[in-house]
Amino acid sequence: MGLVADILSWACLIGGSFFTITGALGIVRLPDFWARLHASGVAESGGMILIILGLCLQAGWGLVTVKLIIIGIFLFITGPTSTHAIANAALVTGWRPKPGTGIEQKDTPPFYDVKEPTVRN
Amino acid sequence: MFLVTLIALFVAMALVLCRLYTGPMVYDRILAANFFGTAAVLFIAVLGFFNGRPDFLDIALLYALINFVGTVATLKFFRYRSLGDARPGMD
């Protein structure tokens, strides 16, 4: 199926698995929850896109590539969305990055008075 | 080549399970579960290619949908302490 496509897909797959492992290591080893959010973002977007691209190159033109692209688009949209939802839920319930962890603590209002959303029940 | 990706994804999923177990905060666990789901989707897709069965991609797509809904539902539960059960007044 074309030497060039094979080499390209092989490189994409290896790159994608490299990003996935880096993201997983980041999720395990980073000190703070807020830092782990970044690691999860790296792995989900970078690793996912490269692996899907590698598989698309391997599959060539056809229905399989269409399915792969659908999966890729869906994951591309919902990955960051779910990571944002997790960060927002943590922020709203009152979790804040500890000042000592190198994340400089802004004492200006927008960071502190995130108003509590009205709970309906 | 697919085997290398399968092993890498498997190692990533195992690592994330460690974070899921030790995560101090509930949102760490939700984050780890979310990443585990995405890695599982990729794992199923690559497994489909590895065994030469293209119908695995439908399973992977379905799992991606369910994983997203599950994450958001868990977040809603931990945020509002309930999934918004129907109040008596609401018809």
What does this molecule look like?
The complex is a heterodimer of chains A (about 120) and B (about 90). Chain A is mostly helical. Helix content of chain A is about 75%, strand content about 0%. Chain A has one domain. Chain A has four helices and no strands. About 5% of the residues of chain A have low confidence. Chain B has about 90 residues and is mainly α. Chain B has one domain. Chain B is flat, with a radius of gyration of 17 Å. The model of chain B has no long low-confidence stretch (mean pLDDT about 85). At the A-B interface, helix 1, helix 2 and helix 3 of A face helix 1, helix 2 and helix 3 of B.
Keywords:
heterodimer, A: 121 residues, mainly alpha, 4 helices, elongated, B: 91 residues, 0% strand
- Tell me the span between the first and last alpha carbons of chain B: 56 Å
Low-confidence stretches of chain B: none
Count of runs of 4 or more consecutive helical residues of chain B:
3
What is the SS-derived class of chain B?
Answer: mainly alpha
Number of separate domains of chain B: 1
* Proportion of helical residues of chain B: over 70%
Structural class of chain A, by secondary structure, is: mainly alpha
Largest interface: A-B, 51 and 46 residues
Average pLDDT metric of chain B: 87
Shape of chain B: flat
Strand content of chain A: under 5%
Which value, in Å, is the CA radius of gyration of chain B?
17 Å
Measured as a percent range, the helix fraction of chain A is over 70%
Spell out the helices and strands of chain A N to C: HHHH
Strand count, sense and barrel status of the largest sheet of chain B are: none
Question: Helix count of chain A?
Answer: 4
Instruction: List unreliable stretches of 5+ residues of chain A.
Output: 108-113
Total beta strand runs of chain B: 0
